[in-house]
Design brief:
The protein is mainly alpha-helical. 44% of the residues lie in helices and 11% in strands. Helix 3 (60-79) packs parallel to helix 7 and helix 5 crosses helix 7.
Amino acid sequence: MSGKKDGLTNIGGFLCMNDEEMFTQAKELVVVFEGMPSYGGMTGRDMEAFAIGLKEAADYFYLDHRIKQVRYLGDRLLEAGVPIIQPIGGHGVYLDATRFCSHIPQTQFPAQALAAAIYAESGVRGVERGIISAGRNAQGEDNVPKLETVRLAIPRRVYTYAHMDIVADGIIELYKKRETIRGLKWVYEPKRLRFFTGRFEQV
């Protein structure tokens, strides 16, 4: 669970499991990568902020505003014909890159191409959730998911409805000229978590 989402904190998270053996292995690994299991690399201040954030995140009025703000963005995109995944989520809107960029085959990474085009067009940063994120299987072949999406996660307590309009306007304008978006190919593909540091160029 990422604390940076609805934990209302700037860092941290937690891992839950119901397998004792896996839990023991995770406790050993966390010492190497983060810190002792009792704090996992988080400061006391961050753990306190996380605890308060989890309580505040369950407040009805907070949740009502957050969900409505995300829905507002999704509704604006739908009204303009922009293809999104429905129902609209609680923390973000997912663009359907397969329909948005129907001219780009999955082998040319339509969701990654769309995320890059949105950033170039409007400065809005989304994240690819498709073939790039799915990685490769044990045989070295791309895992091929059914969905190619761009996640527009909305930070909590940061943006106004006017900011949502800026995001919507930029994406709507790009959708009008979507045929100009070009597919991508690898320039550098890291062995692990390739969606973080991979590099591409247009086909």
